[in-house]
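User: Sequence in, structure out. Go.
Assistant: Echoing your sequence, followed by the C-alpha cells.
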Amino acid sequence: MQNYFMVIPIKKEKILVLGASGEIGNFLLKKFKSLGYFCEGTSRSHKKFSEFIIYDLKDDIDKKIKLSNFSYCIFCAAETSIERCENNEVNSRFINVDRTIDAINKCSNSGLRIIFLSSSAVFSGQNPYYTINQKPEPKTKYGVYKLLVENYIMQNYKTSSTILRLTKVLTSSTKIIQEWKEKAKSKRTIFAFNDKYVSPIDLDSIFNVIEKIIKNKSNGLYHLGGEESLTYYELCKKLFNSDVSILKLIKPEISNSLSPNGSLKTYLPK
C-alpha cells in the first residue's frame, strides 16, 4: 500500500518578524510558516517563547541575528502603549525611534527589504478616514515616533521599503474586548467611550496585504483601515447585541481624547 503525504514547498522569500510575541507579529509568524515560508520571529523573553530568537530593540541586531539568512524584515516590535510613550518620553523615543532606525539601517545594509508597520496615530484624529495624501499631524508621542521613522525610511530606503499604516486590530483576545467580556460575565457595568472612534481590522487582512507586498516586492506608503468607524460605545453594544441583559449594563462615558478618530481610507498596492 502506497503512502501519500503532502509536502509544503518552501517559498523563496525568507522572513524575519521582529516582535513575534505580540498579537500581530505572532499571527504573521505562524501564518507565514503554515504556508511554507522560512520565517523566524524574535522576542525579548526567553521564558514564554523559547522557540524565538531572543532580541530586544536595545540590542545590536546584527550581533544577535544572522541577517544574511533573511530577505525581508517586518517591524512589529515597539513600545505600543500610548500612555507609556507619554509618561516616559526618553525611553520610549529611544526604543521607537533611535533603536528602530538603527535596526532598519543594519537590516537594509545587509540587503533585507523592510516592512514597517505604522499607525493611524500619525494623523491628528480630528477627522475620519485620512487619505494617503493628507498631511500627518500626530497629537501623541506614539504618533510622533511613528512619523519620525516613516520619514527616515522614505528619505533613505524608499525603493526597498514599505510603510503600512494600520487602524486598530481587534480580536477576541484584545485587552479591551477581554475586559468587556469579564465585566459582562460578572454582570458589572461596562463603560465605553461615546466620543472616541475605532475602525477595526482583523489579522487575516494584515497578513494578506503583507504577503502581497512581499510577492510583488512593493515599496512605498500604504493604508489599511476598517470599513466602518464606530464609537467604542457602539462597538460594545454591537458585540453584545444578542443579549439584552448585557446591553443594559453598557453605559457611555467621555474620553476627552485629543485624537478621537482612528480611521484610514484604505490604499493598497495593486
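User: And one key feature?
Assistant: The longest strand covers residues 113-119.
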